[in-house]
Amino acid sequence: MIPSSMELLRSHLSKVRIPEPTNRISKQECCISFDTPRSEGGLYVDLSSFLAFGKEYVGWNYEKTGNPVFLHIQQRRKPVTEDRPVKKPTLLAIGVEGGFDDREPEYEETLDIVILPEHVTIPFPSVELPEKVRIAVDAILISEGAERKEQLASWTAEKKKVSAYAMNLQQINNGIVVPPSGWKCSKCDKTDNLWLNLTDGMILCGRRNWDGSGGNNHAIEHYKETNYPLAAKLGTITADLEGADVFSYPEDDSVEDPLLAQHLAFFGIDFSSLQKTEMTTAERELDQNTNFDWNRIQESGQEVELLFGPGYTGLVNLGNSCYMASVMQVVFSTHSFISRYYEKQSLKMTFEMAPADPTLDLNTQLTKLAYGLLSGKYSLPAQEKQEGIPPRMFKTVIAANHPEFSSMRQQDALEFFQHLLDQVERANAAKPELDPTRSFKFIIEERLQCPSGKVAYNKRTDNIISLIIPLHEATNKEQLEAFHKMKAERNLEGKEIRASDEIIRPRVPLEACLASFSAPEEVHGFYSTALNAKTTAIKAVFWSSLMLLLHCIGACVGLITNFPIITFSGAPEKNCQGAVIHLISVILQGDVKTAGLTTFPDYLVLHMRKFVMEEGWVPKKLDVYIDVPDIIDITHIRSKGLQPGEELLPDTDSSGEKMEPTHLAANEDIVSILSGMGFNCLHCQKAAINTSNSGVEEAMNWLLSHMNDPDIDDPISNDSQIVELMSIDEASVETLISFGFQEEVARKALKASGGNIEKATDWIFNHPEVSSAVHMNATSSSMQAGDPGVPDGSGRYKLMALVSHIGTSTQCGHYVAHVYKDGRWVIFNDSKVGASVDPPKDMGYLYFFERIDS
Q1: Rounded to whole angstroms, how far apart are CA atoms 172 and 169?
Q2: Where is the active site (predicted)?
Q3: Cis amide prior to 117 (ω within 30 degrees)
């Protein structure tokens, strides 16, 4: 006798759970695909694990877990009326009153209880359903869902804080009375985007945006001159003062001024009669998010052919997630990631090997993302554009426990790329042969020669080359001089550069940037075991030094004219002849530290240092073009290791005694600079010590990464400044070595973590400077392709992708990726994918080169 559907359901009640408030419930997206309730076949929610599955994958879950009862959710589109009103958002939020309304069509939802493997279907709601099932389903339906909770938590903006300057704001009675209309900037002709300084009543224009729109920076310049802290945006002031836009320059944020009515009345402003004519800062941000004009921002408004199909799937912007989208589009255009997570990785096998909650497993979510981007399943033509796929689960996993990437703030694409490689490497630690990040790895070998003539070799691994942009090597100096002369004349006349005027930017060849890689730099305090004393060495790439020397000599004899001033770190500014003398003395004295690559990676990543610190630690983006060829050859920077006739520096001093470990003291200059920026002095000392006094930038990066360490406030002890290899469990050491870590690093990590392998692994990844500092075998001269985990091959590369950035800093603006695919350049701009007409090769922030195999 065949049991009825209700009898079958009752027989499986033991498999049905009623969700508790702490349970994660997925009901909006499949955990191993990008299927949703709106996809064909809808979505199936497991009533035991509360994970959701698309129609193609629900059977896999039954085979793996034996859970047979599911809530089936289907949403079908309703017809949309043409006269549907447009709702403009007023709050930086999604799914809340006043938040984003993307004018999505409405959907009609149907619910069923489905029992596998027979796919027996019971409509919901039904009075005949067991009470346990009804309660479980009701709890699922009223819950926000794990995806929605994360989305809302990330998108809803923080409430504006009361300014620390508002309650005691000093106002100057200089007779200014602000009229109710007809405003104009006091320093230019701007009549919009105007700000009223609440101290002296000056009306000035706002900041200039990255695309040339906005103001002329007169309001912020006025603050820098006067330190008057608060300004209110005219046109946003109405009877509802809560909607007024007040900005605090020292706090660098929009703030609340509880005394705004009083501060406005001081200048004769009757706010109750004013009408709103301008967008607030938050509304402008919303406007830019909802009206993103990608043709104007990218490729100068060219007609772009939209592309669809396998490998041409866009990524939905989750809110300032373009940094992640651009990097992932490039990464999943490399053979190593495609092979690891798509071609050689079955989605079903990935799910079978995944932990109980695959939404929190990085390898599972990377495979899901790979299939989403590369299969073409979600890249189908729509009316105007493809919808793309939302990488929410991937973002949750990759950003877990990271305070910045887990937020909705804009981030640095370089930092995310390196964070991604670190996390993927960790996820593949058990099987390093599968690790796709190896294709980016290479080994740098440094050669240091002290005045004794003896040498030392050190090696470290890396995955990017970060290049300084030598502006003095610009190839269009005459045009630049003429442009700056014209600009200076306009400034004297009180005029601004017209929008019709062509802006001339420096053009620097990529070869010049590569030549500056590890350019001459004095290294103080190097202890020579041959001299038994500290001496000064010069850190440089040897071939760069020779090129620079020849260039200088040519300039001295008149072969090259107008040679720029050359500045050596730690040395006074010298002219061309001085540079020659300095370099000759360096090379002849032997105080030379040279570097080269002992291996060439499959994919070479070049980072252009466009973001620099000006005086006063003010960040600035270099407005510069980089002339990048399609083919580069870096064969000449291959390091060949110990050469015939070279003598290694001894491990002991010349007296034959083993050098005792010395205590590393924090560099006072580094500590002073960081302390001056407001950091705790003890923290600054630890940062300097833990980065071996390598520089302010390195110390600051360490400091920002370790401010929440539980021992950050512990006093500095001598033991903390010396690395002593202790007697620890050798089995633990071997385990870490099997993960690919060096023995000395493994021992340090185990000592620092009390012998716990898991904590030691975390310690290694959180202290990359230790791995970089470990000296490898100094006598090796044949560390080539035989090194495990590091590829090698030809030094010739072709440009295969670039990530470009538009904006004034890495924390704002927009990232876009261009990838060379199928014989043409393709632009990936979040969910939009099109054939590139004019790829901005000279505007890249990150350049990705693929090795050309002989």
Answers
A1: 10
A2: 322 (nucleophile), 814 (proton acceptor)
A3: yes
419 as an active site residue: the answer is no
Sign of CA dihedral 763, 765, 771, 772: negative
Q: Where are the alpha helices (DSSP H) in 602-727?
A: 668-676, 681-690, 696-706
Rounded CA separation 469/617 (Å): 19
Query: What is the rounded distance in angstroms from the CA atom of residue 427 to the CA atom of residue 793?
Result: 26
3-state SS, residue 636:
helix
Which residue is catalytic, options 72, 222, 419, 814? Answer: 814
Pairwise CA distance, residues 71 & 136, whole Å: 10
* Greater pLDDT, 150 or 838: 838
Catalytic residue (choose from 12, 31, 222, 322): 322
Tokens of 460: 């470290």
CA–CA dist 183, 195 (Å, integer): 10
Q: Which two tokens stand for residue 195?
A: 């700000």
Global pTM reads 0.66
* Rounded-to-integer distance, Cα 683 and Cα 492, Å: 47
Question: Distance between CA 228 and CA 200 in Å, rounded?
Answer: 8
CA distances from 26 to 50, 149, 349 (A): 6, 10, 21
Centre a 10 Å sphere on the Cβ of residue 524 and count the other Cβ atoms it contains: 11
- Decide if 814 is catalytic: yes
Helix, strand, or coil (residue 548): helix
100 or 626: which carries more pLDDT confidence? Answer: 626
Give CA–CA dist 783/157, Å, rounded: 52
Better-predicted residue by pLDDT, 542 or 493: 493
Strand 230-233 relative to strand 43-46, pairing: unpaired
b/e per residue, 778-803, with b = 16+ CB within 10 A?
Answer: beebebbeebeebbbeebbbebbbbb
CA 196/CA 203 separation, integer angstroms:
5
* DSSP-derived pairing of the beta strands 253-255 and 246-248: antiparallel
Q: Give the span between the Cα atoms of 589 and 536, in whole angstroms.
A: 11
Token look-up 């490729």 returns 299
Sign of CA dihedral 624, 629, 631, 635: negative
Is residue 793 within 8 Å of residue 836, measured between CB atoms? no
Chain segment 85-131, per-residue pLDDT in tens: 555 555 444 444 555 444 567 889 999 999 999 999 999 999 999 99
Confidence of residue 402 (pLDDT cuts 50, 70, 90): confident
Name the strand (E) or helix (H) holding 56: none
Between CA 821 and CA 819, with CA 442 as vertex, the angle to 5 degrees is 15
As annotated, the binding site includes: 185, 188, 205, 218
Helices of type H across 496-624: 510-515, 542-556, 576-589
Give binding residues for Zn(2+) as ranges.
185, 188, 205, 218
Q: Are strands 203-205 and 194-197 parallel, antiparallel or unpaired?
A: antiparallel
